[in-house]
Amino acid sequence: DRVFSRPGEPGCLVNFRPKYENFIGNQWIPPVKGNYFDNISPVDGKAFCKCANSTSEDVEVAIEYAYRCWQSWKRTSAQDRAKVLYQIAQVIEDNKEKLAVAEVWDNGKPIREALSEDIPDAATHFRYFAAAIATQEGFLSEINENLVAYHFYEPLGVVALIIPWNYPILMASWKLAPAIAAGNCAILKPAEQTPASIMVLMELLVDVIPPGLINILTGYGPQVGKPLALHPKIKKVAFTGETTTGQEIMKYVSQNIIPVTLELGGKSPNIFFEDVASENDEFFEKAVEGCAMFVLNQGEVCTCPSRALVHESIYDKFVEKLISILRNIKQGNPLSMETMVGAQVSSEQLEKIRYYIELGKKEGAERVFGGNGKKVVEGQLQDGYFIEPTIFKGDNKMRIFQEEIFGPVLSITTFRTEEEAIKIANDTSYGLAAGVWTRDNSRGYRVCRQLEAGRVWLNCYNEFPAHSAFGGYKKSGFGRECHKIALEHYQQIKNIIVDY
Ligand code: NAD
């Protein structure tokens, strides 16, 4: 277990700077207007550093450095770009503990998750895209006896990457790795709730990356994200965040007619057929644990399985098991290796979750577990943003079934037939992910194919391999990350036709 030492105290593994300027051209450059905001840790509700409150003036500075770097980076061979990505991966791996602790203070997530998933996965993404770019090939088409059409993959230029707060370093890696591998330079804007951990990473990367390849501007969406996305020198926006923000981003990119990828919200259904509970075996355990994943990362996961659809014949047995699992989940100090559920990212997020818990009660949903609002964690963490998990049983038409809560709140409903399950699952404006659990493979396949979601897990949940394309249907966005096809979202194709 990590000693509970606040940033700045002896024993804290990370030496956060008291004040972070922007990271531009491998330097720390103060915001032009000189303003900073307090970065508050969800672990204890106290500020632990300040970060630049950037504006459009800072966007200009970052673009200048990024654009300059791009003049040489775009000419760098794919093999040399791959080398830089491998080095980044190595730095992440060598500093795993430090980065995990930084992530805990910034986001409130449990250290065991950060150490076993977030940070190693970030390194994997850089390695994966290093290999992907090193092996990518253009192609040619033979048109007729004389004409040959060549196709070359070319980078776009300086790209804007705007990310949310739930997986700060991992979300940055999902975008940075394909963007720079493809030959672009990047300006990344982390979420204002979690601006510090990425800065800890950048401090470690100074000697590894050319100046201007990766630039970080901290601050708020409308003040810095918007001018960044609107800037005429930005050649692509990759955005992850809420659907409503995604709608704004689409308006911005229409100004300069640039490509955009949007990874947005979700309200993912997790379907449990009757055969799941036919025996009290490992499969049944695994399935119910798959349902309990609604508490993973405090429910702040875009693919959070927030709607469970359980066959009515197994409902009682299923819920009994689910509750016994939840009772054994340790929640509290995220720096303890035993902790499985940490703190919500911000007081606003905590209030939003409480609002939905009250709404569920008002809508007439049955309270199956929890539902009491804030969880009291004693001592130094008493002001942290902890909340106990909650389960409601209700109807898919209710708002708690339709709106993304982004917290540890599960809405369960029952179904009788396969057709009904598919209908309920698809009755949502989102289409990010879904889960299906059954011992019957052909039913599993059949149902997966009918679900309106970009990612479906059959008999598993929340697996995120780097070589598996991830992205949404419907209002969950478009474009794919995490597979080599993501490279093409950061490239354009030059076609040269030659008459020999
Ligand atoms: P958000 O939309 O509020 O913010 C995301 C980012 O956009 C932040 O950096 C924010 O500062 C910036 N932003 C806000 N307004 C902006 C504007 N007008 N112009 C430019 N930038 C702006 O989202 P959030 O609350 O940080 O994150 C939670 C959301 O992210 C959830 O909806 C979740 O489902 C989604 N998410 C999706 C995926 C996915 O892959 N589909 C992954 C993680 C999170």
From TrEMBL:
Q: Give the annotated active site.
A: E263
What domain of life? Answer: Eukaryota
Oxidoreductase in keyword set: yes
Domain named Aldehyde dehydrogenase: which ranges? 28-496
| A GO term for molecular function | oxidoreductase activity, acting on the aldehyde or oxo group of donors, NAD or NADP as acceptor
Q: Which InterPro entries does the UniProt entry name for this protein?
A: Ald_DH/histidinol_DH (IPR016161), Ald_DH_C (IPR016163), Ald_DH_CS_CYS (IPR016160), Ald_DH_CS_GLU (IPR029510), Ald_DH_N (IPR016162), Aldehyde_DH_dom (IPR015590)
Answer yes or no on keyword Oxidoreductase: yes
The entry's keywords: Oxidoreductase
PROSITE patterns from the UniProt entry = ALDEHYDE_DEHYDR_CYS (PS00070), ALDEHYDE_DEHYDR_GLU (PS00687)
> So which residues are the signal peptide here?
none
Note the Pfam families from the entry: Aldedh
Family, according to the entry, reads as follows:
Belongs to the aldehyde dehydrogenase family.
What name does the UniProt record give this protein?
Answer: Aldehyde dehydrogenase domain-containing protein
Natural source organism? Galdieria yellowstonensis
